[in-house]
Specification:
There is one protein chain. The protein is α/β, with parallel strands linked by helices. The chain is built from eleven helices and twelve strands. It has one domain: Alpha-Beta Barrel (TIM Barrel).
Length: 236
Amino acid sequence: MKVIAAVDILGGQVVRLLRGDPNNKVVYSEDPIEIAKKWETEGADMLHVVDLDATLRTGHNNSEIAYKIIEAVSLPVQIAGGIRSIQAVEDALRKNAAKVVLGTLAFKEPNTIKQLAKKNEDRIVISIDQKDGIVMIDGWREPAGIKVEEAIKLFRPMGIREFLITSVDRDGTLKGPDLTALVYATGIADARIIASGGISSLSDIVRIRVARCSSVILGKALYDGKITIEKLKVLA
């Protein structure tokens, strides 16, 4: 199971939000590149860089910072947050993003994913942010009108195998992952599931591994020192 460290960027700062709420944030660093290098040094397998400004449509973006992170580390970096056009996807791939995570674009324009997957299926990850089994989009503010199972079954035939499952009510809470949702997702159509949201301890990691998730994204637990990558790698 791959260990992925999250670097969420809002206003150029590394932050963590509670349930995606920009009014409930903790700032961890003014230097995202320094943080990225820190997680590389500590042994992360990959970085998950999220542009929260683009996600939340603040009128700003952190794409240049994300691209500088790609240049600054030797780890693969997946880019996420507010990527809502084919051009934005292609720009990220040209800048050597290992993978691009798509949410709103995927659910509003599924035919776009079919087009992108023809050449880049191994570099496209579909983000499924779910609340009560319903997919949420546009910064978790709008229901997509589709269930988790339906979402995976929609994109799997297009060649997409990897899905990032985040339970909105758990994200940033340290209350443990939504194992029910994760187990359910891993059983659908031979999908590879990246677990995210609520993870707070090594015992959570064990449960996620038992749920057969291919990767786990660590955010607040990592920044608050509740989990170290070194100890986690022994389990993962």
